[in-house]
TrEMBL record:
One of its GO terms (molecular function) is oxidoreductase activity. This is Nitroreductase. Residues 9-158 form the Nitroreductase domain. Gene3D superfamilies: NADH Oxidase (3.40.109.10). Keywords: Flavoprotein, FMN, NADP, Oxidoreductase. Transmembrane segments: none annotated. Belongs to the flavin oxidoreductase frp family.
Length: 242
């Protein structure tokens, strides 16, 4: 074991922050770390919008479903797939392919994870905000995003004002397949994990009184529509057209 592995294995999402700011040196180091993530074909398809305007923060908190930590965090970043930059460099660029959407989404996710790990290594904390996709058209309007730029998610960063417990992950045998995909799910192993999740929620400090297994949560989430407006928005922004 080493400090890097220890940091990765003890990740938690932080949603309560102190008033302490993130210094310019810290911020620049976080962004530099993000930019050093792997990037497909060296396309570097990620852009970051740093949201510092308090009124804009409040609007994002509302759009994301009342996530007040967007207002309270020292930094709120919106991570975007950006092919607009490429089009300005190469007007003849052929865009709109689904593969480009995958490339961009992977690039940006790798960048953002690098940023969060860098922040955590400084004693900071953060949380991803997928809720901005509740109304991506409004997000694009607020940030004045041109065509060929896609907002994927937000991220809050700051000095933690809580110590969340570590949420248990799936057992490795349910995740790692050797040589071929193992189609038959190990129900006993899943049942043991479900109980572990139930125990986690029952012991978690705070006002969250959730009592549910992982399987129950998955059934609840996947039994309803998942932002059906996304396909149309992707097309409007010039993505996944072919």
């Amino acid at each position: 074991m080493n400090p890097t592995i220890d940091l990765l294995r003890h990740h938690t999402s932080v949603r309560k922050f102190t008033d302490a700011p993130i210094s310019n040196d810290q911020f620049n180091t976080i962004i530099e770390s993000a930019q050093m993530a792997s990037t497909s074909s060296f396309l570097q398809t990620g852009s970051i919008v740093r949201v510092s305007d308090p009124q804009l923060r409040e609007k994002f908190a509302t759009l994301a479903g009342g996530q007040t930590w967007i207002i309270e965090a020292a930094e709120f970043l919106v991570w975007c797939v950006d092919f607009h930059r490429h089009q300005q460099i190469a007007p003849e660029a052929k865009l709109g392919f689904s593969e480009q959407l995958l490339i961009g989404a992977i690039d940006v996710a790798l960048m953002a994870e690098n940023a969060l790990v860098a922040a955590e290594s400084m004693g900071l904390g953060g949380v991803f905000i997928g809720g901005i996709r509740n109304d991506p058209k409004q997000v694009a309007k607020l940030l004045e995003l041109p065509k060929n730029v896609l907002p994927l998610f937000g991220m809050c960063l700051g000095q933690p004002n809580q110590e969340p417990s570590i949420r248990p992950r799936l057992p490795q045998p349910l995740v790692v397949h050797e040589n071929s995909y193992q189609q038959k799910l190990d129900k006993q192993l899943l049942a043991e994990y479900d109980q572990q999740v139930v125990d986690y929620y029952s012991q978690r400090a705070g006002s969250n009184t959730k009592v549910a297994s992982w399987s129950e949560q998955i059934s609840a989430i996947l039994s309803k529509e998942s932002r059906p407006h996304i396909q149309a928005f992707l097309n409007e922004q010039g993505f996944a057209l072919k």
